Amino acid sequence: MNTPSHCIINLTLLGKKHTLAIIMGGFLADFPLFVFYLLQKFYFKSSEQLIWSTLYYQSSWQCVFDLFHSIPLALAGLLISFYYRLSVLIAFFASLILHSFADFPLHHNDAHRHFLPISQWRFESPISYWDPLHYGQIFGSLEILAVIISCFLLFSRYPSKISRFFIIGIALLYIGFLLLMVTYWFK
Asked: Which of 9, 36, 68, 103 measures 20 to 30 Å from 93, CA to CA?
């Protein structure tokens, strides 16, 4: 799933309390990907083709991406948060775990090792949220539908202007992601 959709859907599923922690949990798993992309694109001046066909798959970057998608590490954080009754961190780690659970069945050749450091195993799903060779059009469309429904639900849940401003901002970021992906696919 695209990062903004994790934020929107996690916020819809995990409730109204600790909104920022839920958004940050939905975002954190993909944070290294943003760092990677910005470095490759703007510092090293790499082409989109090189970034996504070769550089993304380098073992050093894969290790970083996979650690941030580690379900055991996020569960450890969640258990510690429960033990100390830190509700903000409970919301954060619940969102981080939900992000990884959503990614697990939706990545094929770009799958993460979700069980690091316990296991090196990587589940290469037969489906993908983006790859047309693995039903990306279907699951990408379902993701778009889930985001649209979530935005409507969030609009009714958060009536204040500032909340709606942030919901619109995340939705616009999501649209930007989709446009970037479509631009890349059709080059």
From this structure: 36
Judge contact between 131 and 140, C-beta under 8 A. Answer: no
pLDDT digits (tens, 9 = 90+) for 59-102: 999 999 999 999 999 999 999 999 999 999 999 999 999 999 99
pLDDT digits (tens, 9 = 90+) for 101-117: 999 999 999 999 999 99
| pTM > 0.85: yes or no | yes
Residue 127 near residue 135, CB atoms below 8 Å: yes
Cβ atoms < 10 Å from Cβ of 63: 13
DSSP string, 95-118: HHHHHHHHHGGG-STT---TTTTT
64 vs 130: which has the higher pLDDT: 64
**Which of the 8 DSSP states describes residue 134?**
G
d(CA 101, CA 115): 11
How many structural domains does the chain have?
A: 1
Question: Rounded CA gap, 103 and 97, in Å?
Answer: 10
Q: Which has the closest alpha carbon to 113: 85, 72, 81?
A: 72
Domain that holds residue 119: 3-185
